[in-house]
Amino acid sequence: MSSEFLWYIPNQAQPGHRGDDVVASHNSLDTLTGHALALEEHGWGGALLGAGWGRPDTFTVATALAARTTTFQPLIAVRPGYWRPANFASAAATLDHLTGGRVLVNIVSGRDDLAAYGDSEGDQTHRYARTKEFIQIVRRLWTEEAVTYHGEHFGVTASTVQPRPVVRGERRHPRLYFGGASEAAERVAATEADVQLFWGEPLDGIRERIERLQGLGERLGREHPPLEFGLRITTLVRDTTEQAWSDAEAKVAEMAAGTIQRDPNRFVAVGQQRLLDLAARGEVLDENLYTAPGRFGGGGAGTTWLVGSAEDVAKALRRYQNLGITHFVLSDTPYLPEIRRQGDQLLPLLR
User: pLDDT (tens digit, 9 = 90+) per residue, 292-349?
Assistant: First the structure.
C-alpha cells in the first residue's frame, strides 16, 4: 500500500507557534495560501489543520485554502459538540463535492474549552461515547438515505445529505482519522475510524498498539475495511546529521529558557503522557527519536522529534512503514521553509 505524506498548517490566532518566525500577517489568507501552494509544489498531499476554541475556525480556513488550490487535501480537525453530526456531514460533503474529493477529516475528542461555546465537557467515557455516535451518524449520512438514528447523545430522523461526497474507486466518503491512547479512545478507533493516528512513540510502542488495535477490532466486531495507521511527528531535517543535532539541541535550549512558548495541554491526555514518560528511557531512542523537547514544554507532535539528515529521518520513517504505518503527518518550524526543504530532500527518499 502506498503511503500518504501530509504537513501541518498553523492556523493560530497568535504568531510564533512552536517557534515559527512569521509574525506579520501570520494567519492571513495570503500567508496560509502560500503554505498550501508550497505543499502542492513540493510533493505533499495536503496538511492537517488543528482545531480548538480560541483559534481560527478550522473548517472555514480549510474551505478558503481548498478554493485557492487544485490538489491540496485539507485534513480538517473537528470536535463532536462543536459540531452536530448532521450539520458537519452536510458541510463536509458539500466541500468534498466542490473540491472533487479532497476532504480528509480528523475527529478530535480531547479536552478543550467546551463551555466557551456552550458544550458540556463530560468525563472521558462520556466524550468517547459521544464521539462514537458522531462518527456512526456522519458515516451513515454520507452513504445512506433517509437515515434515522437515536442515540444517547445525538439523533437524526429521515435525514439525507445532499450533495453526496465524491465516490472514487474504493473511496466512499472522506477518510476519517482519529487519535487517542486511552482505553475508551482505542475502542472507538478499533471499530469506527478509518485511520488511527499515533504520536511519535518508539517502534516497540507503535508495534504493540497496532497489534492491540487490530485484536480489539476483531473482538468488537469491526464492520468497516481494516483500520489503517498514521504517525504525527516533528521531523527536524538538515543537510548533515551533525547540523541536525546541533540545531535540535539549540531549539531545546530555547525551550528550556522559555523563548518558545510551552504547550499548556501537554500533561492532559493519555497519549501525551506516554510521550512524556519516554524521557525516563533515554534522551535518544531508536537511533534518532529525541525525547528532550517534552521535558521543556513540547506538546503533541512537538514532544518527540525525529532528528537527522534527510537520509537519517527517511530511514527512521521507513521503519515505521515496515510496521504498517501508511499515513504520515510531519512538520517542523519555521513551517514554510521546512515545507520546501523536507519536500525536496526527504519525500523523494520515501517514495
Answer: 998 887 778 788 999 999 999 999 999 999 999 999 999 999 999 999 999 999 999 9
Burial of 216 (0-12, 13-18, 19+ CB in 10 A): middle
- Bridge partners of 107? 78, 178
Backbone phi, then psi, for 60, in 5-degree steps?
Answer: -65, -45
CA proximity to 230, closest of 45, 17, 32: 45
Q: Are 173 and 143 in contact (CB under 8 A)?
A: yes
Residue 11: strand, helix, or coil: coil
CB 317 within 8 A of CB 345: no
List, as one string, the DSSP characters of 101-112. Answer: S--EEEE--S--
Best CA proximity match to 273, nearest among 249, 304, 240: 304
Question: For the CA atoms of 300, 306, 310, 316, what is the dihedral angle to 10 degrees?
Answer: -110
314's grid cell: 527517511
How far apart are the C-alpha atoms of 71 and 59, rounded to whole Å?
17
> Does pTM top 0.90 for this prediction?
yes
- What ranges in 100-230 are assigned the alpha helix state H? 124-143, 183-192, 203-220
Q: For the chain, percent helix, then strand, then coil, each to nearest 5? A: 45, 20, 35
Alpha-carbon span 258 to 60, nearest angstrom: 32
Please state the separation of Cα 19 from the chain's center in Å. 19
Q: Where are the alpha helices (H) located in the chain, listed in sequence order?
A: 29-41, 58-67, 85-99, 124-143, 183-192, 203-220, 241-256, 270-277, 310-323, 335-345, 347-350
pLDDT in tens, 1-37: 689 999 999 887 676 677 777 877 888 999 999 999 9
